[in-house]
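Quick one: structure for this chain?
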Amino acid sequence: MANEHNEQAQDIQNEQQPEQTQAEGVEQATNELSVEDLQAQITTLAEGLKLEKARAANATYEAEKVKERLEREAETAKKFALEKFAKDLLDSVDNLERAIQAAGDEQSPLLEGVQLTLKSLLTTLEKFDVVAVDTTNGFNADHHQAVGIDPNAKAGEIGTVLQKGYTLSGRLLRPAMVMVGQ
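Got it. Here's what it folds into:
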């Protein structure tokens, strides 16, 4: 009985060996096709990955540019947010200067108070980068508005300043109204 059992096991083994050899051949052929297919898939996926990396890099670049632009715009808006307010305060500065001129040479506590108020207001305006336009270096059409001719001034020079001009952070807020020599 043991012999019969061994013979049957050998027969089964012999039958399985050709089947295994056949299966290995089919598996190798399948593996060869699969390897080619897998390599094609790898190539396709690698190209897709490159494309997606490029898109991600482009999106990151665009996001940075938008962020920088928004920061610049916010800074500009913050810088010039006081424009209307400062323009309205300039009327008060003009009125205080006129009051000081009207007082003439007479010194009084009232005049001293007006002068201190004007000084305080100008200091506050300068703190927020509101600065008077320079009228000592000749006429500049970008900062001065000629409203007449001053016969006592040299050509191209400013003779009389009728109203001071001001800038806010380098941007013209109000031009100086001047009379210019011919």
